[in-house]
Specification:
2 domains
Length: 154
């Protein structure tokens, strides 16, 4: 296998690991991205940046740029807002939503653990009602199962 093939494979792996691998590189129609070399349609950060640049500097319409770079107009506006708020770092895809069990910590988790008898099913549906009464929390039964490290309920 050639050195450039190894480099291409490792770059694709690195992009995938960082969450920056474009899921639809074939939709990027800008000729610069078709030539190979510096512009890589697999790099979603580079694609979004160049799309924003085309609108801001080259005065291409948002609709035209969105079509040319294979994204929707709402995706363009989200990229513009992300870039405006954080620069290039804002264009790096990130996991959205909670980063952990934000409802089931501390006192709430201790309460749940105290409600479960070792070796017995956890009865997550029943525990959701107890949490609602005691803490005013509305929690899905599966959230309780994950927090307690078990899969099956009765």
């Amino acid at each position: 296998m050639s050195s450039s093939a190894n480099h291409e494979r490792s770059k694709a792996n690195a992009l995938a690991e960082d969450g920056a691998l474009n899921p639809a590189p074939e939709k990027v129609g800008d000729p610069k991205f078709q030539e190979g070399g510096f512009f890589d349609p697999r790099d979603i950060v580079q694609v979004k940046y160049e799309m924003l640049r085309r609108v801001a500097v080259d005065r291409v319409s948002v609709t035209e740029a969105s079509d040319e770079y294979g994204v929707s107009r709402p995706t363009f506006y989200q990229a513009k807002a992300d870039f405006g708020g954080a620069g290039l770092a804002g264009l790096v895809p990130r996991k959205r939503g909670p980063r952990g069990p934000h409802k089931l910590q501390g006192e709430v988790l201790a309460f749940l653990i105290a409600q479960v008898d070792p070796g017995e099913p956890i009865r997550a549906r029943e525990l959701t009602e107890r949490l609602r009464i005691k803490f005013g929390l509305d929690v899905h039964p599966r959230t309780i199962e994950r927090a307690l490290g078990q899969k099956k309920t009765v």
